[in-house]
Amino acid sequence: MHVIAWRETLEGRELSAPTIRRKLSALSSLYEYLCERDAVAGNPVDGVKRPMANSNEGSTPALSDEQARRLLEAPPEDTLKGVRDRAILAVRLYHGFRREELCGLRVKDIQSREGVKHLKIKGKGDKIRYVPLHPLAQRLIENYLLLAGHGADGDGPLFRPVRNNRTGELERALHPNSIYRNVVRKYGLATGLNIEVNGLCVHSMRATAATNALSHEADIAKAQVWLGHTNVSTTRLYDRSKTRTEDSPTFRVRYEEELFKQIGVRPGSFQEQEIFVNSIDQEPVRINMAFPVLVPIPGKIMISVSDGQRLFRL
After folding, report:
1. Does the first or last residue of the chain, that is N or C, have fewer Cβ atoms within 10 Å of its Cβ?
2. Which domain holds residue 36?
3. Does residue 59 lie in a domain region?
């Protein structure tokens, strides 16, 4: 009864269903631990109804390929901070580490296993996993270590502050909060991604890596290990293959099929259908006609297409 009353208190505070589920799950795990050690007779959370999950998809926004590349290329290449931040973004975007896992990396955690560079990761519950290091991330890390000069300090933190106005100490690990404040948020503002992507946050890097891997047919069981998830159901939140934009019925609705036939384009199709039009500067531009937009004007219909940056009218 006390657990039910606590759940109702949480509901009264208008906490979200996932938040309440996590709190109940944490309490249940505590009692399971106590039961195993004969400290309590049973788990009072058993049988307590939990709020229904309202989605089979995670709420954290993932970046598109183009947005991820833009973010990765945002830090300057001619400063120590810029070189470090490029390496940080590459590690997160290509491996999906939690920010605490990234901040906990030491120089000696870059290890060779069967001739391939790996990163030794200490995840939740101090669980150790080894993740192959992506070649691009490896190159950026090597550039950073060469410029920063602490590549021989095996026991020292891999990613360090470039300045410390308070104490001057630089041989320490970055704080997890600084990953968002000084890296993700900073370059999100610089590239405009904070406006384009509603809810852009530090976890978006992990969501982007996981979603991208799964969309390119990564095995979900291997992705679970790769991400350090205890339960595969958590990994499935990043599997958006069933909700891909290009598969939406929106793009199967056809009212102007005859009009599109006249210009040789099948409306609503995501197959390779590209045409060449002239931009304002008269340079030929190749446009994918996946997203044709009909704009009615008096007496005729104007078709507008976009390459993602510019608008063209046919």
Report:
1. N
2. 1-54
3. no
In this structure, the answer to whether residues 171 and 259 fall within a common structural domain is no
241 neighbors 214 (Cβ within 8 angstroms): yes
pLDDT digit of tens for each residue in the chain (314 aa)? 588 888 888 888 888 787 888 888 888 888 898 898 888 888 988 888 888 765 555 678 889 999 999 999 999 999 999 999 999 999 999 999 999 999 999 999 999 999 999 999 999 888 999 999 999 999 999 999 999 999 999 999 999 998 876 777 778 999 999 999 999 999 999 999 999 998 888 899 999 999 999 988 899 999 999 999 988 888 888 887 767 777 778 877 766 666 556 655 555 444 444 444 444 444 444 444 444 444 333 444 444 444 444 444 44
Of 112, 101, 175, nearest to 138 by C-alpha is 112
Sign of CA dihedral 238, 241, 308, 93: positive
**End-to-end CA gap in the chain:** 67
Residues 169 and 220 in one domain: yes
For the chain, how many structural domains are there in total?
3
Q: Are residues 224 and 257 in the same domain?
A: no
Helix (H) or strand (E) holding 11: helix 2-12
Task: Give yes or no: residues 122 and 215 share one domain.
Answer: yes
92 shares its domain with 211: yes
Q: Report the C-alpha gap between 165 and 180 in whole angstroms.
A: 19
